[in-house]
Amino acid sequence: MKKGITLVLFWVVFGAEAQNKFFERFSVVQTFQNQLAKEEAAYVNLVFPKDDTSSINHSFAIGVNILSKDLKYTRLRPFFEWQKNTLLKDKQDVIFSGLDFQIFFWDVLDTSNKHAHRIWTPYLSAKVNYKKDNVKKTEGTQGSLYFSPEFNRNLCRFFLMPGVMVQNDSSTVRFYYDIYAGVEYEDRNTLDIPSNGDVWRLAYRLTANLTLWDRVEIIPDYINRRLLYQTTDAEKNQSEFFKISFNLKLAEKKNNNIGDLKVGLDFVKGVDPTKGFDNQQVTTLTFKIKI
Fold first, then answer.
1. Residue 90: helix, strand or coil by DSSP?
2. What's the pLDDT score for residue 127?
3. Whole-angstrom distance, CA of residue 177 vs CA of residue 221
4. Residue range 2-290, CATH number
């Protein structure tokens, strides 16, 4: 009996610790496309009308960091992602699986005096994955490589520079923005032979976050893509994608050790060829979770 009680206590103490270590590596977010700690929450909407076809709208990515947690700004994550929306006129249903890699590089230093200090750090975000589009009936390999700068927030002369959190004395208002630039590659295969081929894109991205009273978030996101080279005529020379989210935080991970819970209103307009989202406009009210 004592042995059984000891085993139970051992599981409660050390099993819980093992679970916490696992969940520190485990991520459930909307998509792996941002820097550390800046990824948006995942969401699922289900609609079951009595006399019509049911619909679904979800955007989530699940990944596990396989690198040491001591590498604070570096991660390598096998991931699975599913973007699906049957509420739209042009439906979306795309599945991804692959590797997500993010790292900070060397610090760019100011050595004009004997006390050298960091000015900014270039940041790399890369992905390679398999993509299957169940609407367009295509599949193939995708890859992306993005660079973004993060400046030293302690330097007043870099006020309102990328990656720098700006806030008032009481922290009721916080704001930061990030800029990204990089290249995207996609190998598209389909039964429609003329649509097969490779696509190379140059992409620019600007995203920001305005937080009010620790409860309200306003998150705009803009991406501009331009074709560098393609062996198919499936895409236009230029595409734009704009999204803005208004979120109300219901709970935070720092308080519940589970994740961030939010309810949000999302407005989306444009086209995202990487995720099978065609040129259209949609507004949704969703419940979101980020682990």
1. coil
2. 92
3. 10
4. 2.40.160
